[in-house]
Design a protein that fits this description.
Blueprint: H1 5-98, H2 102-108, E1 112-117, E2 121-128, E3 132-135, E4 146-149, E5 155-157, E6 159-164, E7 169-173, E8 194-199, E9 207-219, E10 225-230, E11 242-244, E12 250-257, E13 265-269, H3 270-285
Antiparallel strand pairs: 1-2, 1-4, 2-3, 3-7, 4-5, 6-7, 8-9, 8-11, 9-10, 10-13, 11-12, 12-13
Amino acid sequence: MPLQKHHKIIIGGFSTFLIGVIIANSLFIYFLYGQLQLNYNSLNENLNQLQIDTQSKVNELTTNLIQTKSEFELELNSLGSQIGSIDEEFSLLKASAGEDFSGIIEDVVKSVVTVRTNVGQGTGFIIADGGYVVTNAHVLTGGNQVGVITYDQKSLSAKLIGYDTNLDVALLKIEGDYNYLKLFNSDDVQVGEKVIAIGNPLGLQFSVSEGIVSGIHREGVSGQSVYIQTDASLNPGNSGGPLINKQGKVIGINNFKISGGESLGFALESNALKDVVNEIAMDNLEQTLI
């Protein structure tokens, strides 16, 4: 049945009203989105500015902390230089009178490092200014990367300066300034005197073993009579570590032990060590170090 005229008017009016509502809602949503976008942009700008301000304050705080630390370290170093000689005399007196190495160990161990390659590890120690480290050459055998771990647990890459396979000595260099160990005249070493060996036996970092000098000028694997025999315990990982007397000086570099024997360790004497280190330095650096 065809629609009457008034029906068409009603339907047309309703359609027009519905279209108007849709258009109005669309305009409202459009303006609402625009307002939200403006608010979002404003909030984003505020967040960016807040981030910039926060980073600026963090940078300022970091700078202040570094400056405060530097000033504190300067004051501490000044104080340390005044009491250093007293501490050294006290440690020596304590070691000589009570045969107690604890005071010396505290200072000496700070110059001892763990030497690591990609295939193994051993021990070394700072032997001269400029971050020069000495160790056994066999510690580096088979490795193509070498680094050290310092007493304060800093992991550093190391540069191989040179080595001597005959006396099993290698010279490395790390970046930074470190206290170095002084060498004792090994001609003055006495059989029976107490010594300590510092190293990393079986991966145990900075272990200390005490013993005595059992013999001097022993013939070693090199065929030369330049080794100190000691009953201080030496295990894998001790290689390249220092053998220290009660004065806190190096009398030898721990080198090897006789398998199957108890307390038969050997260290290359400090005089021979000095000569070979200087030879390596002259060949590669055109200067002596010790």
